[in-house]
Amino acid sequence: MAIHTRNSLLVALSLLLLITFSNLSEIYGAKLRPSECKPRCNYRCSATSHKKPCKFFCLKCCATCLCVPPGTYGNKGTCPCYNNWKTKEGRPKCP
């Protein structure tokens, strides 16, 4: 019984570490592969009523920055390039 409990604890700890480290790439602004832009932008733009322009600009920003902030809104601090790209008027270019 002690071996089963120890193995269960080891599996649970391993899963916790895997989940923790799988999100570190987003937190530290790791570069995405270009093939990852479309699914990330689809999720990023899923909550807006202006999906077509959101996806257009998100894909454009992702192609340049190779980063899309997590979530459907905000969190731009995790992607400095995405966050700092502005229009001529000084407004954010990336959704």
Automatic annotation (TrEMBL):
The keyword Plastid does not apply. Keywords: Signal. Residues 1-24 form the signal peptide. PANTHER family: EXTENSIN, PROLINE-RICH PROTEIN, GIBBERELLIN-REGULATED PROTEIN 5. Belongs to the GASA family. This is Protein RSI-1.
